[in-house]
């Protein structure tokens, strides 16, 4: 079995690892995490854990490190990768989920021909329903790509994008997207409250409507535009509401377009600042 080393067992790292454990994947997993409390959690989850890379190499030969999965914060990455001088870069595949750190950045810090995947998971990975957009350097082969898909699909679904330039779009849509949905639920609930519903009922109606609609969208495999039209009755309440929401002057499309553009620009700025 191939060896996978996960660096970082914070919120996202632990969510990813739990997905791996639940799927019983055909890999040996190890964690490197400096925080004792987080290491103890990883041990409870059934993963062998080490305080640092040197400690790991006392037990695992560097030539058997097939995949290194980097789940540390971008500002911690420079310090984390300093220890990789002993790694066989022709053999080891790196997967990074650090926003703003490009292929060029890693190539300049480690090795020009490093095999690297950039992935952008989102928060629903913590409950096994994440979606992860990812791209790869040209030297990642088909077998390695299958391993990447197995690892990423363990905590949701994965979407391959052809170019690294699309990662900022992935970040703006699916990476930040859960916050947009949560805010939609928050606003819909608040409106219900303002219209006289109890807070409990307003929350339930808003949240369950979003959950139910998402499940229908997934299970029916019908285009969202058609599903939307199925709810609309000519002259009815939904049509009246959508006249506002779908307005060309101030509707949801224009608002979300500006939202995604702003998030994408910030992701691009982060890339430029590293």
What's the short version?
This protein is 52% helix and 16% strand. It is α/β, with parallel strands linked by helices.
Please write out the topology.
Blueprint: E1 2-7, H1 11-23, E2 27-32, H2 36-44, E3 48-50, H3 53-57, E4 65-70, H4 74-81, E5 93-96, H5 103-109, E6 115-120, E7 130-136, H6 142-153, E8 156-160, H7 167-175, H8 177-194, H9 199-220, H10 224-231, H11 237-245, H12 252-273
Parallel strand pairs: 1-2, 1-4, 2-3, 4-5, 5-6, 7-8
Antiparallel strand pairs: 6-7
Helix pairs in contact: 7-12, 8-9
Commentary on this structure:
The chain folds into 2 domains: 2-169, NAD(P)-binding Rossmann-like Domain (Rossmann fold, 3-Layer(aba) Sandwich); 177-273, ProC C-terminal domain-like fold, CATH 1.10.3730.10. The chain has helices spanning 11-23, 36-44, 53-57, 74-81, 103-109, 142-153, 167-175, 177-194, 199-220, 224-231, 237-245, 252-273; strands at 2-7, 27-32, 48-50, 65-70, 93-96, 115-120, 130-136, 156-160. With 274 residues, the protein is α/β, with parallel strands linked by helices. Helix 2 links the parallel strand 2 (27-32) and strand 3. The protein is elongated and about 70 Å long. It has 12 helices and 8 strands. 52% of the residues lie in helices and 16% in strands. It starts with a strand and ends with a helix.
């Amino acid at each position: 079995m191939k060896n996978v080393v996960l660096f970082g067992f914070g919120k996202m790292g632990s969510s990813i690892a739990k997905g791996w454990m639940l799927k019983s994947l055909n890999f040996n997993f190890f964690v490197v995490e400096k925080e004792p409390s987080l290491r103890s959690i990883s041990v409870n989850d059934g993963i062998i854990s080490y305080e640092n890379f040197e400690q790991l190499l006392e037990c695992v030969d560097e030539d058997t490190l097939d995949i290194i999965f980097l789940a540390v914060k971008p500002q911690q990455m420079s310090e984390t990768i300093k220890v990789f001088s002993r790694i066989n870069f022709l053999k080891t595949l790196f997967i990074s989920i650090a926003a703003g750190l490009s292929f060029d950045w890693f190539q300049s810090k480690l090795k020009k021909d490093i095999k690297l995947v950039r992935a952008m998971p989102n928060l629903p990975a913590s409950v096994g329903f994440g979606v992860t957009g990812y791209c790869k350097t040209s030297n990642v082969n088909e077998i390695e790509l299958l391993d990447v898909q197995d690892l990423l699909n363990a905590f949701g679904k994965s979407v391959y994008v052809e170019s690294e330039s699309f990662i900022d779009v992935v970040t703006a849509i699916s990476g930040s997207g859960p916050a947009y949905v949560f805010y939609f639920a928050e606003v819909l609930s608040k409106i219900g409250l303002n219209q006289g519903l109890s807070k409990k009922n307003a929350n339930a109606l808003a949240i369950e409507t979003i959950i139910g609609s998402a499940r229908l969208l997934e299970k029916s495999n019908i285009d969202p535009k058609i599903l939307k039209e199925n709810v609309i009755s000519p002259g009815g309440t939904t049509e009246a509401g959508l006249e506002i929401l779908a307005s060309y002057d101030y509707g949801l499309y224009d608002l979300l377009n500006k939202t995604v553009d702003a998030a994408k620009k910030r992701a691009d700025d982060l890339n430029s600042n590293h």
